[in-house]
Specification:
By secondary structure, the chain is mainly alpha-helical. 80% of the residues lie in helices and 0% in strands. It contains 13 helices and no strands. The radius of gyration is 19 Å and the shape is globular. It starts with a helix and ends with a helix.
């Protein structure tokens, strides 16, 4: 049961990325570089202090790590591209088609049986997401948005592959190695770009980057990847809708953006879908005892 709560906790942490990026006021790629660099040092230190730092087995599973790294980079690049070439609503909605792709691909790629609770909770979560998007201005199609919509959909597929491969590596007890590999590949991929971008770090941005590196890029991934040893990909994908949902109260508290009734209704559906997944996991656990 606590593994599902780890997923929820990671999603709540990641839901604050929007606020963090707005407060840091630096290009997203710069934020990614510094937070990944900080976490790339912090994660091994944390694992070593817990006696869990062991890097063997990476070469044996290199195809999975290669796919994981590629999915992560494609996910980030296409999502940011989508945000810059279409409306936020379009970008968010297409990005969060990921759980649908997980439901389709997980049975094929990792032989994960499609569960009945997924067929109930996933449509509820998608409906809730649609309501939130519609309350934010709706979905806009057309030539000017086509590239952004396509990029957002690609990011959704990449995010789905990321979840599925992460689940596979976690079941192989390679979850800690996956976190470290992802962080340093992110550093390597973003460093050349960051070196060409003129930027200045203030004391405030430095503190926020340190916070993001330790909280968003260290604690949250360790929680998420360790939970995937138990939580199946379908459930993790549904619980992923908590991330955009949590942005609503954050916007109220820190930005003064009041949600509409439609947005609140969509949030309620997402909460119900998450509750159904967690309740089903608890029931299955009790049945095994």
């Amino acid at each position: 049961m606590h593994n599902y709560l780890k997923i929820v906790a990671a999603m709540l942490i990641w839901s604050t990325w929007g606020l963090m990026i707005r407060w840091i006021a630096l290009p997203p790629v710069v934020v990614l570089f510094y937070t990944a660099f900080i976490a790339g040092i912090a994660v091994p230190v944390v694992l070593r202090s817990r006696g869990e730092l062991e890097l063997g087995g990476v070469l044996a599973a290199w195809p999975l790590f290669a796919v994981l790294a590629l999915a992560s980079i494609v996910n980030n690049v296409t999502y940011f591209y989508s945000l810059g070439h279409t409306t936020v609503s379009n970008a968010v909605f297409t990005h969060y088609t990921a759980p649908l792709f997980v439901a389709v691909l997980a049975p094929i790629l990792i032989a994960e049986k499609l569960q009945k609770i997924t067929l109930i909770s996933l449509p509820l979560a998608v409906a809730g997401m649609v309501m939130i998007v519609l309350s934010g201005g709706g979905i806009h199609f057309g030539g000017v948005h086509s590239r952004g919509i396509l990029a957002g959909t690609v990011s959704g597929v990449a995010y789905a592959v990321l979840i599925i491969v992460s689940r596979k590596l976690s079941r192989m007890m390679l979850h800690h190695k996956a976190v470290i590999v992802l962080l340093w590949l992110t550093v390597a991929a973003t460093a050349p770009v960051v070196l060409t971008i003129e930027h200045t770090l203030s004391v405030m941005s430095g503190v926020l980057l340190l916070t993001g590196g330790l909280l968003h890029s260290t604690i949250a991934p360790l929680l998420y990847f360790s939970a995937l040893r138990v939580v199946i990909a379908q459930h993790a994908a549904v619980l992923g809708y908590i991330e955009p949902l949590a942005a609503v109260p954050l916007a109220v508290l820190f930005l003064g953006e009041l949600p509409s009734f439609t947005s609140l209704g969509g949030g309620f559906l997402i909460l119900i879908s998450g509750y159904l997944v967690i309740r089903d996991a608890r029931r299955q656990r009790e049945d095994r005892l």
